[in-house]
From TrEMBL:
SUPFAM superfamilies on file: S-adenosyl-L-methionine-dependent methyltransferases
Transmembrane segments: none
Molecular function terms from GO: methyltransferase activity
The name this protein goes by in its record: S-adenosyl methyltransferase
Region named Disordered: 244-266
Keywords: Methyltransferase, Transferase
UniProt key word Methyltransferase: yes
Pfam families, sorted: Methyltransf_19
Length: 266
């Protein structure tokens, strides 16, 4: 059983949080009893949830590698979560030690753990901010000190936007970030869906009782979020089908429970 971590300031442990549930499902220990109970119930109702998380994490790794192959060396990872295997700075700096990474999350546990991990990494930082407030987020001094928006930036919104309800206009939010990006910048999205795995609906239903209610969306809705970006091959596909490679742990595309896409700002 996971040990209970020290509780950083501002953490609400009365409600399960998406960051901590995801951490538990991936085998991490930065979670509390309330998160573990939630995750255990979810895994009972839908054992495939672990595959969904693994397929997503694997997509994230491949997408970061792809961004570097495209010559993009700056990463803004919004909704970055609690550090776990294959963090963006690790994947990126293994390929290019000078790659810069800014992690953003609104869950204090995620940022506390990220800062601890990045203490001796001058090329990466972690910022506590809400994705639904793009102006404030993009104005953050620490973020600005690490990223040069005159150069291409890869914006990662991986397993983030299903936590943004329709009322907060997720496609509109993406446009706010898009508009500050230099040509050649990349947008990486993965987004929960019930397509292929109808049981994901039960998962979304359960998330109503967490701090992060979730809205699953269709392929068409995810495609609409890419407005103003040239969608790169293979298009909007199940996350496990996005440029698969040979590393073990891959799942069948239709088990992904999420769509994935990468686009380029012309
Ligand atoms: C499922 S985790 C994904 C972590 C990582 N991006 C990945 O795909 O491996 C979703 C993360 O989004 C964060 N999140 C949800 N809504 C957010 C918001 N409005 N602003 C910032 N972070 C948010 C949660 O706290 C959580 O850490």
């Amino acid at each position: 059983m996971a040990e209970t971590p020290e509780r950083p300031d501002g953490v609400d442990i009365t409600k399960p949080s998406a960051a901590r549930i995801y951490d538990y499902v991936l085998g991490g220990s930065a979670n509390f009893a309330v998160d573990r109970e939630f995750a255990d119930r979810a895994l009972e109702r839908f054992p495939g949830a672990r595959l969904v998380a693994t397929a997503n994490r694997s997509f994230l790794r491949r997408a970061v590698q792809f961004c570097l192959q495209q010559g993009v060396r700056q990463f803004l990872d919004i909704g970055s979560g609690i550090p776990t295997v294959g963090n963006v700075h690790e994947v990126a700096q293994r390929i290019d030690p000078d790659a810069t990474v800014v992690y953003v999350d609104y869950e204090p546990v995620a940022i506390a753990h990220s800062r601890q991990l990045l203490e001796s990494n001058p090329k990466a930082t972690a910022v506590l901010a809400d994705a639904r407030e793009p102006e404030a987020l993009l104005d953050n001094a620490d973020l600005r000190a690490h990223l040069d928006f005159d150069q291409p930036v890869a914006v990662l919104m991986v397993a983030l936007l299903h936590f943004v309800p329709d009322a907060d206009d997720p496609a509109g939010l993406v446009r706010s970030y898009r508009d500050v990006l230099a040509p050649g910048s990349l947008l990486v999205i993965s987004h929960g869906t019930t397509d292929g795995v109808p049981e994901v609906a039960a998962l979304a239903d359960q998330y109503k009782h967490s701090a992060n209610p979730a809205t699953m969306r269709s392929r068409e809705q995810v495609t609409a979020m890419m407005d103003g970006f040239e969608i790169l091959p293979p298009g909007v596909v199940f996350s496990a089908a996005w440029q698969p490679d040979d590393e073990p742990g891959e799942v069948r595309p239709e088990q992904s429970g999420a769509y994935a896409v990468v686009g380029r700002r012309p």
